[in-house]
Each structure stands twice: as C-alpha cells, then as structure tokens.
From TrEMBL:
The lineage of its organism: Bacteria, Bacillati, Bacillota, Bacilli, Lactobacillales. It is found in: Cytoplasm. This is Ornithine carbamoyltransferase. Its EC number is 2.1.3.3. It catalyses: carbamoyl phosphate + L-ornithine = L-citrulline + phosphate + H(+). Residues 153-320 form the Aspartate/ornithine carbamoyltransferase Asp/Orn-binding domain. Gene3D superfamilies: Aspartate/ornithine carbamoyltransferase (3.40.50.1370). It comes from the Bacteria. It comes from Streptococcus caprae. Reversibly catalyzes the transfer of the carbamoyl group from carbamoyl phosphate (CP) to the N(epsilon) atom of ornithine (ORN) to produce L-citrulline. Residues 5-145 form the Aspartate/ornithine carbamoyltransferase carbamoyl-P binding domain. Keywords: Cytoplasm, Transferase. Belongs to the aspartate/ornithine carbamoyltransferase superfamily. OTCase family. L-ornithine binds at residues 164, 225, 229-230.
Length: 326
C-alpha cells in the first residue's frame, strides 16, 4: 500500500500506514538482532542528499539501505551542483533517472516537495526546517516498546515548541491518537497552521498548547530538543534566557509526579560541555547544560539511545515498504 510513495511529512500517511511502518520496523529489528539476512532490495540504488549535518539520519539510511542489499550514495553539502549551479528541479530530473529513491535533508520544505514531484521516484524527508517525519517513527516505536502500546498515552514536548521536531510530534500524536502537550513560551509555540493540521488529522488525541510548566503533571513521556535548530540565526543567548525555565531537569521531573514516566530526546543534546559549542557557551555564559540536565540525560540514556538505534530499524521499514516490488 505504500509502494512508490514519498514520505515528505506525516500527513502523507494515514494512521494505518504509520502503524504498519512501526510494525514493519519491529519485524526488521527482530531480524537484525537474530542476524537473519534481509537483502530484499538487491540491485537498487538510493541517494542521500544532506544539505545540513547529520549523524543518526545519515547512519540510519546508510545501514538500512545496505542491510536491504542496496547501493547507497552519499551526496553531501557542497559536493554536488545543487543550489549553487543547478536548481532542485534539474537535480531531481538527473537523480530520478539514475536512482530508485532519494533521501533529502535540507532547509525549505518546498525543496523536498519539488524533488519528489520532479524526480518521479520515492523521496524521504530526512529533516527540513518544518518537519522531521522519519524521527517520528523511531520515537513512537520506542514509546510502544517501553509501554507495550500507545493507547491513552500522553507525550509532553517542552522547549522550542515551533521547531521541526515539535511540529512533527504534534501532528503524529494527533494521527496516532496519542495525547500531545506542547509547553513553550508564547513566542515559541506552534504556528496556527500546524495546530490546525493536527486537529484536521486528529484521531481522538487531546492536544494542549500552553506556556504553563505545571501542565507537565501526570505525563507519560517528556520530550525535548535543542533550543536552536540548524539554520537558525537568532541570538543564542536570548533564546537560552527565553527557554531556561523550560529545561528538563530534576525539578520538572518532580513536578510531573509520574514514577513511570520516560524522557526522550531526538539528539544531539546539550547536556554537558564535551562539544565545541557546549564549551563555547560555558566559556561565554557559564552554562554546562541547556535543554536537558546531565543527570536527567544519564538517567534516561538507555531509552534515548534505544530511540536513536530505532532510527535505523524504522527507516529500513520506510525504504522497504516504499520500494518493494520495484
Ligand atoms: N535526530 C537526528 O535527526 O539526528 P541527526 O541530526 O544526527 O541525523
Ligand atoms: N530541531 C533540530 C533537530 C535535529 C535532529 C534541528 O533542526 O537542528
């Protein structure tokens, strides 16, 4: 049912299709763990275009494609003519004539939409400024693995409430019928059209948008992401001051008052100063941690890294389901 389709944003797929992908990922995960060979797509070629940096998404598409028996070609930022000497349309015509599918991570959502329209092959959005759909499959698979099901769960995203990950969580939660609360300062809450999309595709989820941190109470999942996304040019210090009251720390966990809650993060995370930017922020302003404290991060690290691993199994499901019977 997903054959030949692109995955550009969550609403491209129905609830049934998203659940099917999560189920397919569970099967692929079992096969991988059991060392069962699954080279179902031998002979196919896929291209991975990355206009922004990536560890998880790039690694996941590469390993998933190779496990399925495909040849995987990485086309990094500045390595092809795209943008500088050639339009998205012309690049799409060329790549579509050679590759069987294309992953694209970039800035504007319109670019990945054009790529899909013109190339004529399945295109998978590996993150744009607006959406991060493949991340969602890994996140909801991890929640399902942990709690056994998704029914009646509440996920609370706290932090920059209008970035790609927040948008995607809001809409995916609605499609899957998982309650989503977004806690963010008013200036960083989701755009009205994103909230509208979520309500148009809602299957019984309670959607809450608030700046009140107390709304964390009783949540099953706390989710956060970086406070400054790739490509944003705002003053980082201003953003930090705006979001520090929304940090995921021990006080927030106490306020949630749910001994069974879990914490997720799409990664990368600023939980210590073992990075160039982390060290720089420490030298300038004295912060050792931003959106999540190191103590909370370490407590939930096994699940957070399970979530990261699940990127590969879920992306494999997307590749397989959209390319099979090619
Ligand atoms: N979560 C995520 O997309 O990570 P990367 O930026 O490393 O791909
Ligand atoms: N919101 C982040 C997600 C990274 C996976 C960004 O766009 O940089």
């Amino acid at each position: 049912m997903l054959q030949g389709k692109s995955f550009l944003k969550e609403i491209d797929f129905s609830q049934e299709e998203l659940l099917h992908l999560i189920h397919s990922a569970e099967k692929f995960k079992q096969m991988k763990k059991g060392k069962v060979v699954h080279r179902y797509l031998e002979g196919l070629n896929i291209a991975l275009i990355f206009e922004k940096a990536s560890t998880r998404t790039r690694a996941a598409f590469t390993v998933a494609g190779q496990d399925l028996g495909m040849q995987v070609t990485y086309l990094g930022q500045g390595e092809i003519q795209l943008g500088k000497k050639e339009s998205v349309e012309d690049t799409a015509r060329v790549l579509g004539s050679m590759f069987d599918g294309i992953e694209y991570r970039g800035f504007k959502q319109e670019e990945v939409e054009t790529l899909a329209e013109v190339s004529g092959v399945p295109v998978w959005n590996g993150l744009t400024d607006q959406w991060h759909p493949t991340q969602m499959l890994a996140d909801f698979l991890t929640i399902k693995e942990h709690f056994g099901d998704l029914t009646n769960r509440t996920l609370t995203y706290i932090g920059d409430g209008r970035n790609n990950v927040a948008n995607s969580l809001l809409v995916t939660g609605a499609i899957l019928g998982v309650n989503v609360t977004i806690i963010a300062p008013k200036a960083l809450q989701p755009e009205p059209e994103i909230v509208q999309l979520a309500s148009q595709h809602n299957h019984g989820a309670i959607i809450t948008i608030t700046d009140d941190v107390a709304e964390i109470k009783g949540t099953d999942v706390i989710y956060t992401d970086v406070w400054l996304s790739m490509g944003e040019t705002v003053d980082f210090k201003e953003r930090i001051d705006q979001l520090m009251p929304y940090q995921v720390n021990d006080d927030l966990l106490a306020l949630a008052a749910n001994p069974n809650l879990i914490v997720l993060h799409c990664l990368p995370a600023f939980h210590d100063i073992k990075t160039e930017i982390g060290q720089e922020l420490y030298d300038k302003y004295g912060y050792t941690e931003l959106e999540i404290t190191d103590s909370v991060f370490q407590k939930y690290a096994p699940l957070i890294f399970q979530e990261a691993e699940n990127r590969m199994h879920t992306i494999k499901a997307v590749l397989y389901e959209t390319l099979k019977n090619h």
